[in-house]
Amino acid sequence: MHDWTIVVCVKQVPDADEVSIDPETGTLNRAAAAAVLNKPDWNAVEAALELSDAVGGTVTALTMGPPTATEVLATAVGLGCDDGVLLTDRAFAGSDTWPTSRALAAAADKLDADVVICGEESTDSSTGQVPPGIAAHNDWSQLTYVTDLDPNPEDGELVATRDVEGGHEVVAATLPTVVAFAFGENHPRTAGLHRKIYAETEFEPRQWSAADLGIEDEVGLDASPTSVGGMDTASPVDREKQQFDSVDALYDALVEQEVV
Hints:
Helix content is 28%, strand content 27%. The chain is of the alpha/beta class. Strand 6, helix 2 and strand 7 form a beta-alpha-beta unit.
């Protein structure tokens, strides 16, 4: 079994702590928030690096976005990824999860990936649809809600511990496979100084367009089936407040309101 080719998908998102809603349009005001690496993707990068440490091979960070998305690839390279690929093209504009996963799937196939690792979801949309979408587009196996990975290179398998309702299960998937790694289930490493300097001063990602992937007619707004019927913002509701001097007085008030 050859060394594994590992691809880790990352995404540039608005800092969730700074995102606000425009009261006039009812849409997210992304411009007011700094662009950062999606929080669950830190765990995905760590899982990819740990897998590479165990079996050998390379880790390539992959993202789709505008040229500024190079910054999250640089973050991943600073942490230890060997290379980065940026899918950037006006043709990608307006893509929802379907064409996004199509583009990432095509890139993963072009990279001849054995394993693709993604964060379980992105903080700006929280659908969790992209990792299974990549697997579906390429007809690869998939492992979701993963909390731990155990490679079995002799049999060309990746064994995962999955979080399920009421406990966990252990599942083996044949390569190539796509992993959705659960948020907070490992401890992302700190970037080494020399690696961080390289990522910030010398690193340049490979850039691929929709034409490079042969999917010009499969991406963008026209290829996106998602439709938002409407959006509204809820106005704050004033709540009545009462303060009680004793537990008995509180209980009597609850009884009077027929709460208990």
